[in-house]
Each structure stands twice: as structure tokens, then as C-alpha cells.
Amino acid sequence: MIEDPASRDHEDHHLQLRNLHHDDYEDVAEIMNQVYAGMGGAWDRDEFNALLARFPEGQIGMEDKGKVVAAAITLIVDYGRFGDHHSYRQITGNGTFSTHDPTGDVMYGVDVFVHPEYRDMRLGRRLYDARKELCRNLNLRAIVAGGRIPGYRDHANEISPEEYIELVKRREIRDPILSFQLANDFHVRRVIRDYIPDDDASQGFATVLQWNNIFYEDRSPPLIGEQKTNVRVGTVQWQMRRVRSLEELMQQAEFFVDAMGGYNADFVAFPELFNAPLLGFFDQGNPAEAIRGLAGYTEEIADEMQQLAVSYNINIIGGSMPVYEDQKLYNVAFLFRRDGTQERQYKLHVTPDERAYWGTVGGSSLKVFDTDVGKIGILVCYDCEFPELSRILMDKGMQILFVPYWVDTKNGYLRVRRCAQARAVENECYVAITGSVGNLPKIENADIQYSQTAVFTPADFAFPHDGVAAESTPNTEMTLIVDLDLEKLKELRNEGSVRNFRDRRLDLYRIDWLGRNEDEDRDMEGTQH
User: Suppose 54 and one of 100, 388, 494, 497 were both cysteines; which one would form an S-S bond, judging by CB atoms 3.0 to 4.6 Å apart?
Assistant: First the structure.
């Protein structure tokens, strides 16, 4: 077998990303003289030394066996001083780099250059990634750069710069610089003239490009009470069993709240209609009357659950409970916050079974709830099977979706599970589902249950390969405890391999909420305790 020389040469490389040093000048000048042969070539040594003296952390090089073969040059600027109508000389202080401002808000990309012999090794991408990492670490709001468009010279007699840029965006034309910058998540803010007047290839034009730091914090974090980015979620796979009193039911609930609180969980989630064992107190010959009798316990249970949330310092997703008001029966999920407040999410879509046996009706409001650890949504069982609802919640900033459910068969469970997992993927959020197991003999319409509690994630490299953070043993009373990183959601929505949130074709379709929110005021009654 004959060895490929190119393959051997590639194996001989020893690449290292590092900051530039003063003694790297000769290597940098060699690259610049080749890349900018028609535009003045390299900076002089004094300019290079001034750059390193002002902002050494921002000058990044790629070394191969002791020789710098690529570099990214950056400054920090107060971008308000310059705005979008600036030139290369202005933004660099006529080559003195005196415009560098350690208290500025923007990292400015002065230059990226790669030795011609290394252009097939994608070193530019590594340098751009290093810039982004530095921008995040320094808590700067964005990277801005003036981007040359050297391919425009071949089209200048036919189309305007704006038309050229649009064609590059649509991949009808490839520009050696702009195409690369767009592929690295920069967007074009505007076109400027005379950015580098002697740049004949770009005809003097340039783009102002920007990459936004989604982790930027525009204020100093509080010393106490800073919002967490890692959220611990606990779920309860609840065993349905006959109880002799409300007190016995609440002892069972407190046991799980206590356990989750002991693990410092931020949330504990209970299933849909977890208080169904109390149905045994009522006449089973009339299921509609029995469920309305069960609704008579809801406010008392809600008060006790609210006290548990405060006492054990944990936010409780109180599954759901029947609420009877204005001669209408609703299935209502509860959020009991650990700060002493509570809110409600009415189930919007009732199943044929709920309607036939109990006469349940759907609510008409959909909410995202603010908590001390992020924005959450709650969809009760069947509601999860309607993707429009979770998309609306995502538009309102939802990060975690809770789905309390109650199903009797595995096929019913799989409908909930698979829809919930789809909601996690398409909305780039976490979804926690939990249900009940066991049986309630001699209670009409509540005979058996099936459940396998789970927490789902989006589908990308930063998450489990199957999109399942954790799942329980089927049909066994148990809990799950899962840590969820909210920062990963931010990164996914802006830099993921696919970006469902950003890539929606809102020019072609959208989802509008048409509900009159008739129960909005009613939902808010009694939310402060």
C-alpha cells in the first residue's frame, strides 16, 4: 500500500491554541504579508506590541510545532462611541489600538487570518469558537466585526452590495469571508462604505456583523438569591391505594415532599388527580356526583400543599384536582410556590371519558409561570397531545414543561410519553411527566393505572443521546430526581445543530391564541396565601 503524502503531513501536525506573545511577531507578519499583499501587508512590530500590551487575552493564535499559523485579533470597545458607521482605522485608533476599553460592552473582531498552507484545516472556526468563549467569560454582550466581501468585485457591475449579500445568505454565491462568518452564527447588521478604502476586492464595502452572547448579564448579580441555572426536579410515581381519611392521604403526600426537600429539589411533581382515593368516600353509583364530592376537598388539600411547599422549601406541582365552580366541573393543575403563592392551570382538553362519566369541561387560559428557578408550563395529560399549546408556552419563555397524567393502559401511556418527548424536541425544553400506579377497587372509572415517569430533554449533543434524562421502573411506586441545566437550553436555541426556535418560518405560518381567557380572573383568585 502506497502512503498518501498529504495524509502523512496531516498526521505530523501538532496544533495548539494559545494567546500570542511578543516573540510571535515574525510568524504573524509572515502570514499578514501573504494574506494582505495588496493592502499594505503586516503591521509593524510596534503596532503588534501595542496590541499585546493593551489586551493580551484577546490575541489568540494557533501554533503548529512552535510556529504560529493562524491568529484572531480582538479589542474591547464601547460600541456606542462608534456605532455602525465606522471604518477600520477608526475602530483601531489608526493602528494604535488605543480604542481598547476594558470597561466596554462589545468585543470587536479586528482580524482573523490563516496561513495559506493551512486553509484546508478549518482553523478559522477554532479561532472563532475561542473568541466566543472569551466573550462569554468576559460577560460582553456581543462580538461585532467589519467583514470584507472580497468576492463582490466579480459582481460589482451587475448588482448592489446589498443584493450580493442576500445572494450569499441564500448560498447562491459563495464569498470567502462572508460565507464563513454567516456559518459561524454571525448576522449582518448593515453595509458600510469605505471601511478599508484600498480594499479593491470588496470595492471598499464591508458588512457590520454581530454575534450575540446569549449568556450576557446586564447587571451585577445579587449576593443572595441569584437565580439558579441548574434546577433539580423530583417527580413522584404515585401509588393509588384506599385511604380512610384525608389526613392519611396528606401523610402520604408529605412523605414525598419531605423526601424531595431532603434532596434539595427545586420542584416535586405529583400526578393528575392524585387525590382520587378520596372518591371511595362517595356513592359509586353516580360517578358525576362522586367527582363533585371530591372537588369539595380541593381547597383544603390546596391549603395543606401550600403549607408543605413553604415548610419544606420546595415548589410543588400539585398534580391536578377537580374544581367545581359556577356549576361547571374543571380538572385543574396547581403550582404551589415555596414563597407562599400559588397559581392554577385549567386542563383545556378533556377526554371523552372525563366528559362522559363526570361532565368535565375544559378551561380557556394558558399560562407560563415564573418561579425562582425559571419559567415553567403545566399541561395536564391530554393537553400534551396538542402541540400548539406547548409552542405557545415556548414563545412565552417556558424552559420546563410539567405533564401530570393519569392513564389506565400502556397504549394510553405511550401516547402521553411520545407526545411529551416530541414537545421537548420541537420546543427545545425539558419535559417532566409523572403518573400514578396501582388500583382503586370498587371506585367507578378509577380502576387501574399505568405509569412510567420520565424526564425528557432536547435532542442534541449536549443532552442524552436518546433524549431521556431519567425514567422510572414501570408500575412501581418510586421517585425520580434529575438535575437540569437551563444554560444548555440557551446554547441549544442559538447554537445547536438544529434550531427549532430560531428557524421557524414565521413568514409562512404562526400560532395565534384566540381564547378569551374567561377564567383568567377566576384562576387568580386565592393565589396569594
Answer: 100
